[in-house]
Amino acid sequence: MNDRVVINKLPSGVPGLDEVLGGGIPEFSFNLIAGGPGAGKTTMAHQIMFATATPERKAVYFSIIGEPPIKMLRYQQQYSFFDAAKVGDGTIRFIHLGQQALDGGMEKVLEAIMQEVDRSNPGIVMVDSFRAMARQMLATGPGGETGLTDFMQRLVLALTSYQATTFLVGEYSDGEHDSAVFTVADGLLWLHQAIDRNSVVRKLHVIKMRGQGQIPGLHTARITEAGYSVFPRLLKPAEIIADHPLKHRLSTGVTGLDEMTGGGIPCGFSVLIAGPSGSGKTVLSNQFILEGVERGENGIVAIFEKRPNDYLQTTPRGVEFEKLVREKKLEVVYLRPLDLSIDETLVELQNAVKRVGAKRAVIDSLSGLELALAPTFREDFRESLYRMMGALTGLGVTVMATVELEDSYTDLRFSPQGIAFLTDAIILQRYVELDGQFKRALAVVKVRSSQHSKDLREYEISSDGGIVIGQVLKGYEGLLTGRPRGGERGLRR
């Protein structure tokens, strides 16, 4: 028999969750939302219910041992997904079965659920908190684990026969498992909430979703006034990175630097600008963005250390940037929560890229990004940065990122934490002492798969806020050691 059953999928209404699940919630599936206290289980359940319930597909929310509906709704109605009209017209109904649980245990609860389902024929059924009911049955009910298994099988059979998409909501600690529940569930969503130092990080793990190719691993999540949001882990870089056409080069806006890179930055490359404080990293990145806009290539700038207004007032090209922001040719993305994740950052950047049709992006700076991350994500900073760079360049965006690098004359480093290899090109800025003065020197360390200048050249920051590349620092020895000898040089535009 070659005919295949087509399973419809319901949009969950939770940003990012459908992508993680592999396309949405399978219709008529039997699912469990589990996690510790405060993980967001009830919020997610309500969000899914309000998104999927319609006059044709009604929903019923059973609360058993736990908060009565009046108390629960007092808080849930604060979220923007809450729709009072759906409660008022009967599209969504809330029923409390606490008394049935106390009087007759699981049998009375099952009987009450079946009577309501038979009467209203809902398409969506929520049961909260199922775990508390299961514990009571294991402690006082007949048969213990066997009785719970029998109850689960009867509940699943009944709700499936009514063609209802069901979610059980239960409070479970990590590592705790109910074999009866987990075995019969088609989908199992585990919500985590971890405290690391002063930050709180939420994560979601889709342990299983039958018949679907869900994205594996832990996915960062956040609860805001809009409800629960998931930030999916990225696809494998090999699946999203576009080819890099070396023949199509982007001008940096600095003539001498374009020559040093072999004709500009290859389209779709990631570039690292590394240098000490005050060396002009932001100045160079500003020129890169402005040059792009002049060529019809809109851009975004992601900042972490200053708010947008402060950034525009202090950056050398702030007036020009303000004009471009008003014209929607440039967007300044501010990301500064101290419990940020790379995946959440990427979602914000991807959305900004789509809003302005950006072809160029600046991350200013990676040092600020690392500080904005929750401590738990800093441990995997290199791996996370690799995924982020791959995803952005995979969109066809050329990325320039700045990073703070302390000058050292005992070893030659191009980035902190060994992240230089993650980018396609590296431009190094540093200070040197010449004739008793601090001078700035610049070198192109690498441009992947391309010829580039090996020269070390002096540069200045002009009065109009631009980089001016000077001549090659010829005749000097020991420039990178901090003790140069000899030389002849001169600046030119």
Describe this structure in words.
With 493 residues, the protein is an alpha/beta fold. It is built from 17 helices and 22 strands. A nine-stranded mixed β-sheet has the order 5-4-6-7-3-8-9-10-11, sandwiched between helices. A hairpin with an 8-residue loop joins strand 20 and strand 21. Helix 5 runs parallel beside helix 7, helix 12 crosses helix 13 and helix 14 packs parallel to helix 17. The radius of gyration is 29 Å and the shape is elongated. The chain starts with 8 loop residues before the first strand and ends in a 21-residue tail after the last strand. The C terminus is likely disordered.
Read across the widest sheet, the strand sequence of neighbours is 5-4-6-7-3-8-9-10-11
Q: List the quaternary state of the chains.
A: single chain
* Class per helix and strand makeup: alpha/beta
Principal-axes shape call: elongated
Number of helices: 17
Radius of gyration: 29 Å
Strand content: 25-35%
Number of strands: 22
In round numbers, the mean pLDDT is 85
Q: Which runs of at least 5 residues are low in confidence (pLDDT < 50)?
A: 236-244, 489-493
Span from first to last CA?
Answer: 75 Å
- Sheet with most strands: 9 strands, mixed
What share of residues is helical?
25-40%
